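Record format v2
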Amino acid sequence: MSYLMKNRSRIAAAGLALGVLGAAGGANAQEIKMWNLADAGGGEAEFLLDAAAEFSETHPGVTFVFETFPNEAYKTQIQIALAGSSPPDVFFNWSGEDAMRLARDGLALDLTEYANAEGGFAHEMSDGWLSSFAIDGRYYGMPTHAVSKYFYYSTAFFEEHGLSEPTTIAELGGLCTSIREIDSSIVPWPLGNNDRWKLNHLITMLNHRVLGDAGTAADYNLSAPADELFTNPGYVTAWQAVLDLQSAGCFEGAPNATAHESANAMFSAEASPMIYCGSWCAAQFHGEGFTEFGLFRLPAFEGGAGDPGAGFLVPTGYQVSAKTEHPELVAQWISSLVSDENAAKFASTMEAIPSNATLIDTVDGTEHYKWIAEDMASATGSVNVLDVLLENNVSNAYLDAGVEILNGTKTPEEVMADIRAVAIAAQDAM
Amino acid sequence: MNSPFGTQKQAGGRRTMSSGASNAILLLPALSLCMIFIFVPAMLAISGSLYSYGLTSPTRDFVGLGNYIKLVQDSIFWVSLKNNLIIVFGSIVLQIGIGCVLAAILDRGITFGSTFFRTIIFMPVIVSAVAVAVVWLIILDPNIGMLNKIVQSVGLTPPSLGWLGDPKISIWIVLGVAAWQQTGFMMVLILAGLQGVPQERYEAAALDGARGLRAFWYITLPSIRNILIVAVLITTIGGFKVFDFVFVLTKGGPANATQVLGTYTYLQAFTLGNLGYANAIAVVLLLIAVLIGWLQLKVSRQA
Amino acid sequence: MMSKFRITKIALYGIMILWSTFVLMPLVWMVLASFKTRREMFTAPYDLPSALTLDSFERAWGVGLGWFIANSALITVSSVGLIILVSGTAAYVLARAKSVWLRMAYIAIVVGFAVPVAAVIVPLYQMVSAAGFVNSYVGLIIVTSAYGIPFTVILFFAFFLDFPKELEEAARLDGCSKQQIFFRIIIPLSGPAVASAAIFQAVFVWNEFLLALLLLNSPGRKTIPVGILQLQGEFTSDWPAIMAGLSLATVPLLLVFIVLQKYFVRSLAGLGK
Amino acid sequence: MSFLEITNIVKDYGAFRAINDVSFSVEEGEFIVMVGPSGCGKSTLLRSLAGLEDITSGSLILGGRDITRDEPADRGVAMVFQNYALYPHMTVAQNMGFGLKMAGQSKADVKVAVERAAKTLRITDHLHKRPKMLSGGQRQRVAIGRAITRSPDVFLFDEPLSNLDASLRAQMRVELGHLHAELGATMIYVTHDQVEAMTMASRIIVLNGGDIEQIGTPLELYNKPANRFVAEFLGSPRINLFDGKIAAINAQTASIKIDGIADHLEISLSSDSGPMASGDKVTVGIRPESINDTAPWKIPAKISVIESLGRETLFYVNADPVKTLDPDAKDPLFAVHKSNQITAQIGDDISLGIPQEGVFLFNEAGETVRYPITQTAP
């Protein structure tokens, strides 16, 4: 080990020297720098390296630099890097307001021509997928896959105690109460909200279940008149649902101080029987050696306007920096990532739902993957998550509101008043 | 000249530089670095605070004092300022207070093992605040954290919202973690001062009947007055500079309860993209910095 | 009388042991936890590890900890060198200054010490970015150095005020220019002050976070504090790996400190002047 | 033109004038000692010569060269500092050779010069040592050696012996005297110790408040001080002074009335006496060694303190109501010097015989108006 360390640091030192020279001499004309999310799973790195090797065969002289960032840091760093002098050529992004703002501010490249060129990604996927990164029919990004969110539950625990999947939010609360009755020290559903987005994903879905798409759209894109913004009592109802779940004993005692990693670990270590987690979590749980779980969609809200068939769906993909020195090459590179073969390969290594589903049936995924793929295909609608959908300040206010609600420091009415104030200010600034 | 060693030849060509020019050569590198990277950005922050613009937006709009008007109405700004003050005064009490006690014990209270204790207690100072915060993050974890276990083992109930999740106590936890790291620094700083107090002074005091705590109060403290002033200044400046601890421990949460001016500037600038507004917060920090700098000069001249 | 004396002694030792334990526990736990398995972290987080496995160290190292350490070392050595050099020369001029302008320059530098990086980070980032120095070691080294200068100037200023004037005068008679006096007479005799400043700045630069976070954003160029944060983000619930990474990043430094602690302590003595 | 011409030197520190229009000249090979109380400007003057202080106005000509604005190293002067100012990080040899090295001389030349100087000062054995390994006296030698190595036109000494103990100081005085003779070099030496001035100087310059009071050989200054300040400054114990009033005067004699003494003190006058008039207040001066038992004019007194030094004896007597004008003493006592041992006891009554030949008179402005009649040794 110590020999290895020594050797590596020598290599590191040599690399540093080169790096300094590189920085001084300007970027290599054939270098593609690509940013990705760090905790997307180990499979992604391998997939990209393989794809890069393949791409280099047809495009000799191209080199790749892959850089990754953890979730929270990513959102900040990508903005900083794009505004700065040394942005990546191509970068991961969620479809949503952030991606659109980068397009509007001229930092994300218009890829329409490249996408429609021969071999371009526009030929690989449906218009529905393409629209996730489009403004007025112009493509400012290329979706690779979508993520969703489900309840994961321990099948062994549910069987042992005769529990069943809930069909309404109220039943979900009842489920928590039952679990607490079995053993009050068990946290039925660890939230892990210390990064704030865990509850944000839940409230996204609750807003939808209560208000429906039509009830929220004008508020979310700030197009409603100022005196009507976020005034729908449904928002308060959704928050109240969170409070009801909390008082039903669902969450851990200190959700705002618990990391989502801890919450995940509580589930995979079978300390907790249930968790609301992204579609990407299945691969993670498998990786941690826990496979005995089932899945269900967030249930309906009685009397809610939302379509219970609609699922949480965030398309994700790549955008290209407007400052890249070789846009065509970069466009070819990302297009190659959604070729039939690569898309299938991506789907199988990542257990993800690819934007190009041509060869999806050939993918030999796990049971859980197949379940998720089927469910997403059968969804009758899609709900994008608030923290990428809303304008930055409103999104932040919504994130903070979740913390206040869970801590009991503000009532649903109070947090909605806060959000409304921020939304009005943001609308003003537009 | 009839020196037996002959006359020293004056090197004719040598012409020494004028005093002004050589002053400039020696002074300018440091001065220009400070100017370019501290004062110019400070000026830009002041001018930038009069505009509204985003991190990625291509244009900026002049809003005059608009950002400042928003600032005084922004409760999170006042919470941040209050938190900075809590950290400043709390750190003075904890770090300098405890540091003083520990230093006094090391100086005259105990002999055996004093180097050992001094080394241990100073150790956290050289660990980066980020690493300190990450370790504490896990210790403070409400589900598996050590602190909960310890508190429960003595029969107390840990806060139900978590040490860092409860807005009423989270800022005090940040303060405590900072004290865990920095007290050793203050202890060693004060110890250095104590060791400069001549033994005769204590002997004279003993003859005058002042021993133990009275000697500490009447002899020791006045003797290390200068070092205490330096310690208070460093702590005050550090209290307004605080960023890393908060950023890693709480990111300003829960719901901005631990936000400080530094992290709030960062949040507004880089997370929310309100650069103009972030600059207005920064200007407040700058004003405080100038005030402290002025105080520092005042007392250092006096000292 | 004797017993009162002993009780006092025991109480004093009690206080020292209490605080030392408080300080030591997290550090010891950090190291112990690095040897645990992930399951052990949950089942028995505060027991001794069942077996001394180095797995978590390998996982942590795999993130590029070696790079982080190398980056931090490069940046620390360069910045500290630069800081000492320019602060030393500047403080020398300022300590000997009689003119109002130089007096004002000193005041400006002192005020600069109180300016938090966070307060100027927005324009600073834009300036560095506009100059094309984002992601460049040189950029970070220069900017970090700028923030290390004020404190170092203050430190050297106090030292030079006490420096025997006759030595400089003797050197002038011996034909030294101001620069020669500084480099041939003052610097060789400023060992304690230089060591003091170097130690302070090494700790400051090594641990500097905000500038490194913003100015070096590609993972290959990260410094230790930023790398640790990445480690924390990347290893989700793999706490043994995080603790192993933290141990690798801090324990060598702690050992260096224990060996050199005498000098650290001495270096602080200069501050009270 | 003299070797070193110092003309109209003025040095101001803001509103404070440290040196007030000072001029003098120095011949080659002279040993000039500048004395005066602290703050008199002697060190400032020396440092101005060295170039360590910029003078406000005036000029310095050394060997025909105007060095007024030259850099210190270019003036052809070397200086020995009070606290030696040796570079602690260099060996003795490096210390001594540093000036030549900076002047660009070859290593070999530097070595030769250093070794020669070391031999002169008998410090050859210490050349490889660091200054902190040396005793005070050795350090002093090295400091002098550093000056010698550079073969300057003028040596400047700034109270070089004040950090040494008494016996070493006496020894170094002799050695410096030898060195001056051996090198034949021009030396300017600042001290506040009048013994050093008296023993070593070819000429003494007495400075006071930025002005030169008098320049002359040691004996000239001792015997013919231009004023009361110089008379008081030179001589140990200090000259005894007391008030008097001229009761009567003519071309040959003056009769002085001393309060409390019935008989007038009769003084003979000569051509070098200054103007005096009847009724003038004067200060009478008498050196301790001039007081004897045989003089006709006597003051009754009582012995207060006896200092028996073996070979000689000093005693201090209370001559009330005649008080000496010593601002520092609580009981203004007369000092008396006897060049033998005495048997008297404290409390004994004696008479102080004041021989009129030994009397100084100073007018109200402090100028000397009557010198003692010089007695040359047989």
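The first helix of chain A runs from residue 2 to 25.
Chain A has two domains: 4-146+316-370, 148-312+378-429.
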